[in-house]
Amino acid sequence: MVAENVLTAADLIWPIFVQEGPAARTPVASMPHVDRLSIPALVDAVGEAKALGIPCVALFPVTPIERKSPDGDEATNPENLICRATRAVKEAHPDIGVLCDVALDPYTTHGHDGVLREGYVANDETVEFLVRQSIVQAEAGCDVIAPSDMMDGRVGAIRDALDEAGFERVKIMSYAAKYASGFYGPFRDALGSKSSLGKTDKRSYQMDPANTDEALREVALDLAEGADMVMVKPGMPFLDVVRRVKERFGVPTFVYQVSGEYSMLHGAIERGWLDESVIPETLLGMKRAGADGILTYSALAVARLLRKG
Questions:
Q1: Which class in CATH covers the domain with range 9-308?
Q2: Where are the domains of the chain?
Q3: Residue 296 region, left (φ>0) first, then alpha (ψ -120 to 50), else beta?
Q4: Which member of 68, 90, 178, 246 is catalytic?
Q5: Which entry of 68, 171, 233, 287 is annotated as an active-site residue?
Q6: What pTM was computed for the model?
Q7: Cross-strand bridge partners of residue 36
Q8: Is 68 designated active site?
């Protein structure tokens, strides 16, 4: 009765990995209880999420190696896996939101978020690809475009292109403060980009974990370019950034409980070191820090738990 913060299923966005092929589900070895889903299995799973009150799902493609290229051209193919998955979900469940990631790392042979030129990601050339990627996703029925690449100027370019193409109602959730973190490993396993990335990293375009003022500058730039909502990623190590962003800008602020956070907690739970109650506890902590919504691989399990009361 006197709780200052409340966690509900409506606060959750469920990230889902989508795969090609006849296998309905393929477990992700480094993420307990997480599977890559075929499109038919995805449609069924989204139906359950909708019934539990989850308002939005985030789709990430497991691109077959033969469809990857140095420039990630498959990202702009209107018949790629993510576009077909989006159409299938919206046809079966038109009332649930679909968020699509915009970045080239699922599609490049080198695993980086953009086009490489002389060993560096070429910002402006990458933005051109991201704009085309955003348009094909919007045409497929995506409700929220989420650029996660951290290129400069991409939000404004995407907003202009969406408006020009007649997609004024498609929202942009910017990965505005995305840190160069060690917590992304299981996600890269799930997508198959970890082996492509090799020993290289993304520190030339993702943020330094030591910085918080920089996060405010990045958020301000993305909002000025037309972002409807912003995200801080990862979650638990950067809750101070969530608080600063929410207090400074007062805009819809989201946080991503990333794969490493998820796997760390579930690994401890499976060994009996922690109780399952730590999952909703960490999510409630993110709400308390100022998050309006949370992307978490635990969304379905937590929504079931909340439904039980």
A1: alpha beta
A2: 9-308
A3: beta
A4: 178
A5: 233
A6: 0.94
A7: 17, 26
A8: no
